[in-house]
């Protein structure tokens, strides 16, 4: 049961008043769209054809996205973007360590650097590691002007969906928590009715954005590769960010999944506040956990949708082998 005290405490993590900025007219609001049958209780809003969670922190999502477009960018900002549950928290910590040339975890939260909900981003000291699940049309306009470095996180969508289901089903708050079965969750995702829309739409829009702006520095952070060969992939990340890779081995060690679960007390604090149990944000981190949840029919159904919606996407090809699909030529 939610209480006033709970929401005040949530505000300390999720909501700070953003600075007043001029709005652009890029983002349209389609709030007339009714919520899908079976999801009427979730606190979400549809903007430009995609549902977004509001987390009781956003009164008007379209207005907030206009403010994001107007965010002033600094020359040394980095934006890390990925579909939810793709390894975003892990990448956030890795990028922090590389940018600050340390093996210590920073005290700031992933959520305080998040573009998706209001926050006092101007107060974050440089270099800022800004994170988002948003599509590029909502990136700050100055990203292109400043050639801001963009890191895109990609992960097997089957593992992504299983992780999303476990997280969304364990929110403590009734207006956030998904109350259906795994099969219902999968159906809603395939229909584009869950927050963030389709996985493949997210991948393709960022891919098109990168190709349309060839001067924009883009680094692909592939979850499976970083898990399999962390030192090598962290070295690549260091070089992309313009830093020495001397700490790559140490960073790989301290950010091993098991170590992060033990050391990141700040995540445990958020979990006690937001979720019905601990171990949700950093759940398993396994490659191939989807095989424990997808039935054969569900896997084949998802594969058909994946094949139909990723034609021509070079980025989507990167995850095929982890989905047990044949390699595309």
TrEMBL record:
Alphabetical list of SUPFAM superfamilies matching this protein: P-loop containing nucleoside triphosphate hydrolases (SSF52540)
Highest taxon of source: Eukaryota
Keyword Transferase on entry: yes
The Sulfotransferase domain, residue ranges: 76-310
GO MF entry, a single one: sulfotransferase activity
Keyword field: Transferase
UniProt signal peptide: none
InterPro entries listed in its UniProt record: P-loop_NTPase, Sulfotransferase_dom
Membership in a protein family: Belongs to the sulfotransferase 1 family.
Full protein name: Sulfotransferase
Organism: Elysia marginata
Lineage: Eukaryota, Metazoa, Spiralia, Lophotrochozoa, Mollusca
